[in-house]
Fold these 2 entries.
Entry 1:
Amino acid sequence: MALSNVLDSPAAGFNFDNAARNAAFEGLFEGGQTPKPLKTGTTIAGVVFKDGVVLGADTRATSSEVVADKMCAKIHYISPNIYCCGAGTAADTEKTTDLLSSNLTVFSLNSGRNPRVVMAVNILQDMLYRYHGQIGANLILGGVDCTGNHLYTVGPYGSVNKVPYLAMGSGDLAALGILEDGFQHDLELEKAKKLVRDAVHSGIMNDLGSGNNIDICVITAEGVDYIRPFQESEFKDRREIKYKYRQGTTPVLTKKITPLKMEVVQETTQKMETV
Amino acid sequence: MLSAQNFGESGKMKEYHYAGPTEHRFSPYAFNGGTVLAVAGEDFAIVASDTRLSEGYSIHSRDSPKCYKLTDTTVLGCSGFHGDCLTLTKIIDARLKMYKHSNNKTMTSGAIAAMLSTILYSRRFFPYYVYNIIGGLDEQGKGAVYSFDPVGSYQRDTYKAGGSASAMLQPLLDNQIGFKNMEGVEHVPLTKDKAVQLVKDVFVSAAERDVYTGDALRICIVTKEGIEEQNIPLRKD
């Protein structure tokens, strides 16, 4: 079976169908503003250590300045040996990683092998470049395969970088400061986890778009340890008074009950196979 | 280079032509975040604000309270553009001194509110980007809250929230202090302790969901004994 059948060959050239549609939409909405998609406003970080790769992410999703989700999952499953952190537009990172994961699952079923990280990177790069930046996904891909431990970043326009340590998202500069200071080649597992945790924590404290808890994902040749949450936020929302409303506080003004009359139209019996 | 900007309304490629020199305007305003709240009781007034000063996605300071003590019976809370907040409070302080020297008495809360309205309107065509709320005691010793818009329109209220999380706080205050949207509930008058607890809870909630609110909460409680200040930590992330 030729592998080229497994993955859909994409249409040649650039694809701007949605961009043209969006431009046409601009006139229809009031004020000429199309609805703004939810952005994650994130801190994600990754580090290659002696036995594998550690990925970390915060858990806050913001919709401009309001926190939309306090416990959103930014580390996505791609395959048993590859995980991906996503920053940027939430829908784009979700769908892109889902698409990638499906494609790679079909590939592994056909070939009987775990996919290599470089395959995942190439598929992502192809797809994002074809949409020329319209898909706002900043991704950090980390995984372990037969050729070693790899950490890649893929940008929204399709740029790829292979690096030993990395941070992305609105809190990337804060996290990168910690990573630049503490990174060494061939770290031990606990040191690597602590470094990633410190980097994401720095993003959480200094960037308004990141916050709440920290998720960590450790990928080694033995398997994957997805720790969610690795560290719960130390800020608990404790309130002084109990806000309870007695029954009847919201008044019922009118009540109208309409019974639904049902009549039997068709009756079929299907025998169940019981042993 | 092809990009979505090259597509016009009908979806066809826009004609590329030289549109003239593009102008990048310098914006004289910045938004520094922050939330302010004031509640008036029978014989007390509370003005509370968070202490975070931010710009964009960064934090300038975790300890920059937005409550300014004007007199022994009046506190002003202002949020918005920090540069204008500082200038406005300097101007108000100067005017308070001038009044004291001319009239040999301290300005009352109502008088300060009226004066602030004229100061703000004098800059009608280049406004102070500040959301003001005054909390204090009036001549009878009752709690008073005056809320303003950036160009000086004001009214006396029982409670008001202003700043970045105001849309989240105001409905909650309407329900808990104004007893709106509730039936069969006894309208107990607000005590000072209950009001302080409510203000703390309401800011804890605002810090959960608004990225610009957090770090710490400064509460100024104005009574006839004087102004008492409390500092409560909020989430820092």
Entry 2:
Amino acid sequence: MAEVHVIGQIMGATGFSESSLFCKWGVHTGAAWKLLSGVREGQTQVDTPQVGDMAYWSHPIDLHFATKGLQGWPRLHLQVWSQDSFGRCQLAGYGFCHVPSSPGTHQLDCPTWRPLGSWREQLARAFVGGGPQLLHGDAIYSGADRYRLHTAAGGIVRLELGLLLRHFDRYGVE
Amino acid sequence: MVSENPHLGDQQEPMQEDSDTRPLSITSRRGPRSLPPIPSASRTGFAEFSMRERMREKLQAARSKAESTLLQEIPTPRPRRLQSPNKRELETEFGTEVRKAGEEVQRTQQDDFQSYSRVKFRDSVQKIKPKLPVPPGFPSAEEAYNFFTFNFDPEPEESQEKPKAKTRAGTNQEEEEGEEEEPPAQGERRTDEEELLSAKDEEDFLLGLDHAAEDFIAVRPAEYESVHVRLQMERELLFVPSRVTVPTYKKLPENVQPRFLEDEGLYIGARPEVPRTCQNTMENRLLTQEPGRKWFGDDGRILALPNPTKAFPSRPPVLTQAQDIKAELETLYKKAVKYVHRSQHMIGSGDPPGNFQLDIDISGLIFTHHPCFSREHVLAAKLAQLYDQYLARQQRNKAKFLTDKLQALRNAVQTGMNPAKPHKSLDTTQKAINEYKSEIRQTRKLRDTEQEKDRTLLKTIIKVWKEMKSLREFQRFTNTPLKLVLRKEKVDREADEAAYEAEIQAEISELLEEHREEYEQKMEAYRAAYQQWKAWKKAQRAKKKKKKQEHPVEEHPDEGLEEPYPGEEPVKPVPPEPTDQALVEQQVRERAARSRRRPGEPTLVPELSLAGSITPNEQCPRVEVLRREDVKRRSIYIKVIFNDKEVSRTDSRPLGADFRVHFGQIFNLQIFNWPESLTLQVYETVGHTGTTLLAEVFLPIPETTVVTGRAPIEEVEFSSNQHVTLDHEGVGSGVPFSFEADGSNQLILMTSGKVSNSVAWAIGENGIPLIPPLSQQNIGFRSALKRADAISSIGTSGLTDLKKLAKWAAESKLDPNDPNNAPLMQLISVATSGESYVPDFFRLEQLQQEFNFVSDEELNRSKRFRLLCLRSQEVPEFRNYKQIPAYDREILEKVFQDYEKRLRDRNIIETKDHIDTHRAIVAKYLQQVRESVINRFLIAKHHFLLSDLVVEEEVPNISILGLSLFKLAEQKRPLRPRRKGRKKVTAQNLSDGDIKVLVNIIRAYDIPVRKPTASKFQQPSRSSRTFSEKRAASPTTHSPTHSVDYPLGQVLVRPFVEVSFQRTICHTTTAEGPNPSWNEELELPFRAPNGDYSTTSLQSVKDDVFINIFDEVLYDVLEDDRERGSGIHTRIERHWLGSVKIPFSTIYFQAKIDGTFKIDIPPVLLGYSKERSLIIERGFDSVRSLSEGSYITLFITIEPQLVPGESVREKFDSQEDEKLLQATEKFQTECALKFPHRQCLTTVTDISGKTVFVTRYLKPLNPPQELLDACPNSPQATAELVARYVSLIPFLPDTVSFASICDLWSTSDQFLDLLAGDEEEHAVLLCNYFLSLGKKAWLMMGSAIPEGPTAYVLTREQSHYLIWNPCTGHFYGQFDTFCPLKSVGCLIGPDNIWFNIQRYDSPLRINFDVTKPKLWKSFFSRSLPYPGLSSVQPEELIYQRTDKAAAAELQDRIEKILKEKIMDWRPRHLTRWNRYCTSALRHFLPVLERSRGEDVEDDHRAELLKQLGDYRFSGFPLHMPYSELKPLIEAVYSTGVHNIDVPNVEFALAVYIHPYPKNVLSVWIYVASLIRNR
């Protein structure tokens, strides 16, 4: 019956080689969690930074969970996409991070990566855009033999999350 | 160096320790060792050095002090001394401390230490020098000492050296010093210290004089150490193991021979490959560093594990990685594509790809019968069929299987009879044997029938073949290549006979046994019965005796007692007959002979071949040739029908002589949804004439597991009921024919055949089957046929549920002996035996439960959470719940009550409100459509434009500025106020009470006036006409008379207006006369449902604004005439005259409604008449008097002005031609450019959300026959009737049903099925009816009041045009000023669209001649001719007759409900119902319906008066289309009949429902109040 409020924002992303970026995000929780209000997933606008390389989205996240257990603490999945001058979108990075478990404001940096693909695909990506994407999104957080996947590092997504916990002490969780 | 003198190692270590610890200890040790102090000390470590420095400083300090004290008069030496301390202070901090202590140090020591520091310089030089001459093997004692002392302290030394080097190289002075120092150092190496000191002192003294200014700045030379020096030092510091091979004996313990395990035959893995030199180095190091030999193995080599390194790089190159990648890590190269808006939230949701594919492979067609079959063909087909059957049976070989089974069972019985295991309880064995026996019996029976079938089949085959042969002989030609060969297989006669006999014997014995058992049972039964009978007999006898003896008198009662059991008197049982063995044998043998091959008889194996030859045409008779010709002319093709739509067809292929057609075509159907039906239609073409549909073949939709490549070719049989008679040899179809010459034994064969096809789901590029998600599947689709297959019957998920599986197995009676079922049976036996624990549930996270804080129930019980969830789900009740309490206890249970009640009532309401089932179904369907449409729009809503998100105030340009400036100069005209534009308010930040509906009631015309109450004293027939619309033009003869009944009534009528909205009522003051002028503004508060003021919610507000006009009547209630002089007692009564109803949604979208509306006045208004004469007399607006009805001028608006929701900009997919769509866009933009405010409509959205060209909706459609029959000879009357029928279909605006603004056009049949629609649907239907009536009719798009943009119908009569309002059924002439249609945008005909390009758009001022291109711009013109678009409307409308009984029932229920409601509305008064009046009204309503509310005045009135003469009566009939109960109730409420609270008032209410075809119901409600006249 404990409650968790996650209030914050996806500040933006930095360190990507692409310029016009947007982000799709989603929050996944375990079976013990129940979303009381708020939206679990969303997408930011496309931001083309004029100054500096940080793309600012300031996309709000406001979730209210009720939980009956600690398993499956909410985690955030991020997909950073870039939009080219033709308005086409391509993947710039997958990211994953846990929502912090201590109350208060947290600054999170979520590093991202993207699959590299074969040299052909890399070449194609460089010239015509697009790029390899994971067929199964689970690989972003599952423990598959990931060494088989050749990836390239993307930039970092910056998040600012505030957490409010309620009634955890009632169940002996400090 | 170690290698040079390794024996020194032992001495080395203690020295190291010492040098580490205390520098002082060295100095102390130096003494006893008596080594020359000069060279040794200079090479000590940093600590030592700094200490030395310290000492020197101390000495200097002490000296300077001594000097200062001793030689105070001589100041010169001080600066000399100051230089060096300053320099040194940088190097150490100890200086100050030491300085204090330094005073105690003695002079001699001072000198001694100083000399050490001097030596340092010398020493460094010295060290390089002796190195060269001294050979490596013989280090000098000094060097040895140096080595030991410096070995492990290298870094400080270096840092120390640098400053020294700097001092040496930096300044001249220092260099001089160094230079000067060096030669003496070399020379004086062995000289006395004293000398050195004095020389140094002198130099220092001299130098110090010059550099007093540089006391604070130390200029240092760059520190440098020559490479040699460094190398030298490194060599001293570092240990470099030698590379020389270490002899084995060193590595092994003493006196141990190396042991080579490999030679002994033990396996030793490959050692890692290490270069020999590296190994040697390692070994050397190990030996010197750790003297133990634990690193070495028995063979004297370093211990090593087998080589762990792989021969090849472990990271495979990128190119080869593709094949073994894991499924979840697969990546797919996706092209950079434009964003598709539908798949927005990609994370988690995983939208289906959308396109699915069904592959239909039609390989061929075989006719099993065809009209062109000759007799031979018929036989051949039969033969082939039989042969197929035979083959199939042969393959299954059931007889053999059953025989084997029988054998096995017999064996089992044998073994059971002679139990080998005596310990087994006899009981169970017996039981098992009994079971076996019964099974044997069954199996035998089965086997017998199978064998018999086999045999008869064989016989039939032979018979047919014989027939065929005889036929061929008879007709002297052959048509088919079929040939049957019977192959005989010899059998061993002896063995066969023996087996046969044994079988028969076994059977006989079994049978006998069975019979015996049976006999025994019967005997048993017989005995029991016999005993019983005997006993009974005895008892009977005894009784009789008793009776006779004891109660001879009471015979009768006893008999009475006995008599109840006459039936129980047992019949004497007959003993059963024992069976006759001979008879049994006889039977068995007979059966065997019948069904089995005789022993020794050869086995016959038929073989069918196509080896025969066909007689060529020339040798055939003419009829046969004709037949063959006919066959050749025929060709076949197959259409593929998907969801009742033709999607493709095969090529037309000629019919072969063997009646086989090969297609071999594969069709790939790209589909979106789960298919509903899949049909193949077989068409036959004869020659060049038309094609006929032979048959339809329904194909099953494949299981999701069936994918292309795995689907087997299946043969689906079809047959047709077509009758064909041919004039040639062909036997025809559906006609009797016979093989016999005499025509007996007739056969009728129908065309039939088999289509071999396969249907499968296609596989996508990445190997994923393109199957629509199962959720789309119809659940009810699963047929009972699937019971045979476990997976399809219980679903794949069921396989994991063992209990379900076992249950299924039990139900389907699996054969446990079938090897196919073996794994299943095993599984089931495990599951059912209870050996393994099968939990009832499947849990993903097993440990979850343990760690849970609370149970699920508790979580769900939390009221707070529930409230939060409901709020976030936007459940209407909670959507606007602002703050939710933090604790459960603060939430009241009653918060949920309404919601739960609604949930509970949802179903109940449906059955109650929609009394007839049809409407309930329709409501459900509408709900579904609404949901799907809403979903579509939710998606579309995400499609934002920049202007939706970014608000940018327009920068005023010069013209706007100029205009506003000009406005300032405008003349002010306060007497002519203008409406100012108000600021629009977005709906989000509003709350209850913020919004008001303003109703400005200006004036009314032609209000009906009172008529003197027709008392029984007056002649009813003479009373004036009641108000009647149609006759209004006729002059009224009546002149008003003021009756005594209205003592206060000075005027004809005292009307006031009451506006009710959401049960809030406001009314104006009372005006007088039939043309009152109020000019009053009424303010009504608006409450949004559930306090939700969002646009979507406001759009769906269904409330209406009722504007009722009442007449205020004053009655004198003074009972006593004596009081008349002193007081007035009057009672105010109000009588409803009529109403105007304006839906809120109209106001919302129009923002303001301004105009004159026709008042909806009931057809009969008792006590009132339309007073026309007066008006004419006054000459007041003679134009108006021409019109019929009463009018009211209104202005309605909402304060503050709300922004209506924007229509959805969504490009729907369309099936229209691309060119046409482009043309429509062009047309629309052109029109919009010229007349931006005129409605131009070319494409509309149909109910499935597709864009459809609008003319497709117009097509002549038949109105119900009933209506046409009503007035056969009056087209105008028919038209009116039809219009009335259309208007009776309830009106439901799209905006209400489909929360967002979008016009969905349903076709007329959909409209009639739904029984709800808005203007467009009504107009389309009416227009279609008119077209079918032969009128020239157009759909007219324009705007009207109060609807706003709407659709009307325009018809052309002989000379004039009529404008029809489809929603009310009224029609207006073109020049009718009261026509609600105010502007015309475009006309739509069945084949064209005309846009109004005239200057005016008012129907009064425009010309409706669409042939004039200057006035009407047509869509299809010469440049773009009409392509002949097919209609979306059905061919014909089918009208079901409405169930009269249901209507009657509905009528009763409505009446009951309304009565209850009226009583509810009068909670403080008693409501009496006047039954007499009610029944009178009930009789009257059908009359009204028949006359459509016209011409029913006097009779009715007279009748009423006759019956209710002593009542004062006020009432009126209401007429409405029926959709739901609520509007009816609302309408009755709005009339305010219930408001009368005269004590003795009585009410009457009657309901009549007139059913029209297609469930269109016309509802009449007559409400009246009666007051008894005193």
